[in-house]
Amino acid sequence: QVQVAESGGGLVQAGGSLRLSCAASGIIFSINAMGWYRQAPGKQRELVASITSVGSTNYADSVKGRFTISRDNAKNTVYLQMNSLKPEDTAVYYCNADVRGTYYSGMLHYWGQGTQVTVSS
Questions:
Q1: DSSP secondary structure letter of residue 42
Q2: pLDDT band at 103 (very low <50, low <70, confident <90, very high)
């Protein structure tokens, strides 16, 4: 069994910064891509940023230049540094990890419970 847990959300003023963390734990052989998604009220969940096991990154156009994704493979942890936050960044942020539990098992997608980020104007 694998658990994915986010932390670091909160309330911040526009222009401020927050750092989100997400750790995967449990029976893990390897982790491929890890990513951050967000869902604002009344909107669909969208990809914010993703990172592969070798460090290749991908960002939504709306966060390029403001957000930075990184990971610590030894800790099975992914981070999202969010700078110059805007009110439109307000959403529940979810972590996703593509995990192989054993050498013989396939890749499964795991989601965290989400962490609220609120940016006030």
A1: T
A2: confident
